[in-house]
Structures are given as C-alpha cells and as structure tokens.
Specification:
This protein is mainly β. The protein is built from one helix and six strands.
Length: about 80
C-alpha cells in the first residue's frame, strides 16, 4: 500500500524544466517526493525528497505521526501540506 502511494505521489510531483536556445536544447529533470519515514524510535517524520536527498519537515518532539501529502515548488520556495 505504501509503495503504491509513493509511486503515485512521485508521478504527480515530477517537475520538468527545459533550458537552452534553438542551437542547444537540454532537459533538466528535478524530482520532488513528499511523504514520511519512520525514525529509530518508531515516530513518523514528515519530509520531502529532492532528487533523492531528504529534508525533514517535522521532528519527533513536534509529533509522533506526521506526513507530507502534497508538495509545490515556486522558485526556491518549497510548500508542503499534510498532517
């Protein structure tokens, strides 16, 4: 169940940008995935991944069960929503 959720979420959150001029066209793909992971104490920590690098959004001191459900990117700003 979790794997299906993350696969669907990954497909929905793929961001593609194209750079270059008519003589030099290249494609840069940046992948963002929102979700959570379970730490060593069994707490779920809300986070997102950008190209495989995780960024935590909560700590176990804030909540023992948190998850990011949606992510939006605007420039350098990252917006995430969840519970």
């Amino acid at each position: 169940m979790k794997i299906k959720f993350f696969i669907i979420l990954a497909i929905l959150t793929i961001s593609t940008s194209v750079y270059g001029d008519n003589n030099d066209i290249g494609t840069v793909v940046t992948v963002y995935i929102a979700g959570n992971y379970t730490d060593s104490s069994g707490n779920r920590i809300a986070c997102y991944w950008k190209n495989g690098i995780r960024t935590d959004l909560t700590t176990s001191e804030i909540s023992s069960f948190a998850s990011a459900s949606v992510i939006a990117i605007q420039g350098a700003d990252v917006y995430a929503a969840g519970f």
